[in-house]
Fold this sequence. Notes:
Layout lengths: L1 H11 L9 H12 L4 E5 L8 H5 L3 E6 L2 H11 L4 E4 L12 E6 L8 H13 L1 E12 L10 E4 L2 E4 L3 E4 L3 H8 L4 E8 L3 E8 L3
Parallel strand pairs: 1-2, 1-4, 2-3, 4-5
Antiparallel strand pairs: 5-10, 6-7, 7-8, 9-10
Amino acid sequence: MTDFWEEAFKDKQEMWGFKPAKSAVLTKDLFVENKVKTMLIPGIGYGRNAQIFKDSGMIVTGIEISQTAIDLGQKHFGNDLKVYHGSVTEMPFDNNLYDGIFCYGLIYLLNKEEREKLIQDCYNQLTENGLMVFTAITKEAKTYRQGTYISKDRYEMFGGVRIFFYDRKSIEEEFAKAGLFEITEVVENYPFYIIKCKKKG
């Protein structure tokens, strides 16, 4: 998987531009409203979704598997953004607790065990009353049931990318123990669910 993302970033460089995703804007509003001061972005990429949080006064830490993406982020955002180089499947990278966690367009690339571990690892790193927001591709995507079937609702496409397509039932199953309180929908380049969780004290 590392090689795939290294090649993707090398080929396309800043392939998504620097405008934050709609989900990031909505999450920023939620985090500001709830006075989030510190946050973690697993799968931060080159940081296009980080700036909006930094501009709102939050201290952002990231995790990223691609060194190329990290280098691109440093080129554009400087060194004031702490990014751990590694896979989200190897979390935690520190013992810090964060007020907010934003995980964009990543969880659906993992297998069931990895998804469960990521959700739990993120939940474990939340402060009391902390919030975590995940975005996940829905079954409304045109790519659903395309490519090679791997397992229920999971397909391989785009030259080796494995994608799990969520519905509300699978979200409830996977996030029920992680303080799930709201599921909304947003259209980015794909139809996404925005999954909101809160850690109760």
